[in-house]
Design brief:
about 750 residues, alpha+beta, eight-stranded antiparallel beta barrel, five-stranded mixed beta sheet, 18 helices, 28 strands, elongated
Length: about 750
């Protein structure tokens, strides 16, 4: 063993000398398992450094093109602030190394060939010197080192590059290199993605210096006290757009909406440090329908050109948007407009309109309707309209709203939810005694609960419920006896019915009846009867047809406000669900129907005359929505198919109709109009929301199409479908509140066609 002692000593000496110099080239662990780490990333806020959260807007808006442009002038200036960021760099344990640490930025900086020469992708960073690894990065708890954003962004480019590199994700890293001979060998390195921290992704940190793309086909139209911008979404790199913001200026260069407070989603070099180099504003032609009266413009100047936030007048918070509305402007006043697309890092690209854009007043459908003499009303509170605006019950409910619900955040939310939903249905019951009675009955449980809550408080109501539950439990023995007695009688009755029913069934089957889908040979079904009428309990149909409400006929005009605002016809879908109550000779049942009609059009300009054909359109969009519902009785003459296999079923239906309708504007609010037909300020207004009661009837013909394919018929039978086919009908609906001039006439005479199923 003694002969190996010199070898052991030699190995120990070599190991010691190795530790004294450095580790094996390229490792990430120092002696004693020590590592160099980058922590506590900080950015400049004002004149001091702050440490933002990894997903904060403050952080994202720092590592962008604007700050890179400001940092460009500060390379080598250790006292500079803008475009400078820092890390706390420390050693996790004592490595027993007292050697310098060098900092580079770029890619693959651990490879010496990338730190110099023609293939260099790294740049040494100008920062504080670390001459003693253990002393400066461990003993003192680490050292905060500042880095220049321009140097880091352009670290992998030639030194002659003078402009910030523009990339969606700057992939350069900051390296800490430890080595005795940096030119030829490297013993140790540690790296962090520039601008990030270990474990972060590029979506919440990192550096983005590439401006997002502009949309194409940018258009501007003047609306009523508004400007409507529209565009086609960009195709290339469109996911980089996060916001669109508009800026407006008067012709004298002052902000158009100086009283409106908006925060810029973009960051400019001019606002940070007065530097240039941000993306230039690109001109775009105005797309206004009033282009012939607009004033040509030169490129923006001054604060408007540098996108001062005081000029911001509109914003949409999604990059997939294709329009933006600017409200609160003056009709007849021309404006300068800039549109900018912005990414999450605050980079932007802008376009200015080469002509002014002027808001012009418009007349929506609801205003036009009343301007031509309509007396239709709507938009009242449901409770006030049901129980009376001045009744004691309504007053008690208002006290519940103000005193009980108004004292908590949840209560105020419930109040807002009521007015946004049920409260809007006041116009539906307005003027109808029958509907007020129905609404009063339906609302009674909620009203009783609200009043008990108001008078007893919520704990009192809960105590009342607990007392009722206790009394119910005390009565359980008596209720159980009653259920047993009734149950025994029900069993006897059910047994008797079963005997009669099963006996009748056997007699019917023995009479030679066999549905054709139960035949083992589907090719011989022609002489077989269809399922018995008693097998059908439900009928469901889906139909579509052209629909034009009788709004213009109510006014005695053709064309009137509806056809002029919403020309042409619209296909309206309807769903019919019927319950078959009797099937002795055909089918007799009751059913419900519901449908939906939606029309949208640009409103008329204020100076457009009803006699004009066509009337001039403005930029404001208004919508008409109709939800027709009906409760009907229906009879289907199925005898021809049931007895003779002739798959033709004539039918008729008639019943009570109730159609809910509303008119809304582009901002989602209900349209409002003066009840006297004028458009004067301060007039008594009515909202474009209501409901109309009426009657309707239809005759039609259905064809049971399952006879065409016996195999399909068997499959339907197994799934519970007795019949399937097509049907068409002629329909007439008179839905005008039974002739009331305060209810909108929304019926029509039309036709429908669709498919049906019987279960």
């Amino acid at each position: 063993m003694t002969r190996f002692v010199p070898v052991t000593v030699l190995v120990m000496l070599l190991a010691g000398s190795r530790v004294a110099s450095a580790q094996v080239a390229g490792t990430d662990t120092l002696p004693n398992s020590a590592q160099i780490v980058f922590e506590h990333r900080k950015i400049v806020s004002g004149t001091s450094f702050t440490e933002p959260n990894s997903n904060s807007t403050e952080l994202l808006h720092y590592f962008n093109l604007a700050h890179c442009n400001c940092a460009k002038a500060n390379v080598g200036n250790t006292a500079a602030k803008q475009g400078i960021f820092s890390y706390l760099v420390r050693e996790t344990a004592m490595s027993m190394l007292h050697v310098p640490v060098h900092f580079f930025a770029g890619t693959s900086c651990e490879d010496s060939t990338h730190r110099g020469g023609p293939t260099a992708t790294c740049t040494p960073l100008q920062t504080s010197s670390i001459n003693d690894l253990d002393t400066q990065l461990n003993t003192s708890g680490g050292t905060t080192l500042a880095f220049n954003l321009f140097q880091v962004v352009n670290a992998n480019l030639p030194a002659t590059t003078t402009e910030c590199q523009q990339l969606d994700n700057v992939g350069n890293s900051i390296y800490a290199l430890v080595g005795t001979k940096m030119e030829t060998s490297l013993d140790y390195f540690a790296a962090v993605t520039a601008g990030g921290l270990k474990g972060e992704t590029g979506t919440v940190s990192g550096i983005d210096t590439r401006p997002p793309p502009l949309p194409t086909d940018i258009r501007a139209d003047g609306g009523d006290q508004a400007i409507h911008l529209a565009w086609t979404a960009p195709i290339a790199n469109n996911t980089d757009v996060a916001y669109y913001q508009a800026l407006c200026a008067n012709l004298d260069g002052t902000p158009a909406l100086s009283s409106k407070s908006n925060d810029p989603q973009y960051v400019t070099s001019a606002s940070l440090c007065g530097a240039t180099g941000d993306p230039a504003l690109m001109p775009t032609p105005v797309g206004s329908s009033q282009a012939d009266v607009e004033t040509p413009l030169t490129a923006p100047t001054g604060d408007f050109a540098t996108l001062d936030p005081r000029y911001i007048c509109g914003q949409v918070n999604t990059g997939t948007s294709t329009s933006l509305d600017i409200a609160g402007l003056e009709n007849g006043t021309p404006y300068r407009v800039i549109l900018v697309s912005v990414d999450l890092h605050g980079n932007y690209t802008g376009a200015y309109f080469t002509s002014t854009v002027t808001p012009v007043p418009s007349t929506d459908f609801w205003e036009d309707l009343h301007g031509r003499g309509s007396k239709t009303e709507g938009g009242l509170c449901l409770l006030a309209e049901t129980y009376g605006d001045d009744s004691g019950l309504t007053g008690a409910l208002r006290a519940f709203r103000d005193d009980t619900l108004g004292g908590s955040r949840l209560g105020r939310w419930l109040t807002r939810a009521y007015y946004a939903t049920l409260g809007q249905l006041g116009g539906v019951v307005h003027g109808s005694i029958a509907l007020r009675i129905v609404a009063g009955i339906l609302l009674a449980p909620a009203v009783v609960f609200a009043l008990l809550w108001h008078w007893l408080t919520l704990p009192g109501v809960l105590g009342l419920v607990a007392a009722a539950w206790w009394l119910l439990r005390r009565r359980r023995p008596l209720l159980a006896w009653g259920r047993r007695a009734l149950g025994a009688r029900a069993v006897r009755v059910a047994a008797a019915v079963a005997v009669v029913t099963l006996g009748a069934g056997r007699a019917h089957a023995g009479g030679g009846y066999q549905p054709y889908w139960e035949d083992s040979d589907p090719t011989t079904h022609d002489d077989q009867r269809a399922p018995g009428p008693e097998d059908v309990r439900w009928h469901v149909g889906i139909r579509v047809g052209p629909y034009v409400p009788d709004i213009d006929k109510q006014l005695g005009m053709d064309p009137g406000p509806y056809k002029q605002m919403f020309p042409g016809t619209y296909v309206m879908p309807m769903l019919d669900v019927d319950r078959v109550l009797w099937s002795g000779f055909g089918q007799l049942g009751v059913g419900v129907s519901v449908g939906y009609l939606g029309r949208k059009a640009r409103a008329f300009t204020l100076n457009s005359k009803p006699t004009d054909d066509p009337r001039a359109r403005g930029a404001d969009v208004n919508k008409f929505r109709l939800i027709p519902t009906a409760v009907t009785a229906v009879y289907r003459f199925t005898w021809l198919d049931d007895e003779y296999g002739i798959p033709v079923v004539p039918y008729a239906r008639a019943g009570l109709s109730y159609y809910v309708w509303w008119v809304s504007l582009a901002n989602g609010k209900f349209a409002e109009a003066c009840t006297d037909g004028t458009m004067t300020a301060g007039c008594t207004t009515t909202k474009g929301l209501g409901g109309s009661l009426g009657v309707q009837g239809s005759i039609g013909l259905a064809i049971r199409a399952e006879r065409i394919d016996a195999s399909a018929a068997m499959s339907m039978r197994q799934s519970g479908i007795q019949h399937a086919g097509i049907y068409g009908e002629l329909s007439a609906a008179s839905v005008s509140g039974f002739g009331s001039d305060k209810k909108l006439s929304v019926g029509d005479r039309t036709w429908f066609a669709g498919v049906e199923f019987e279960f």
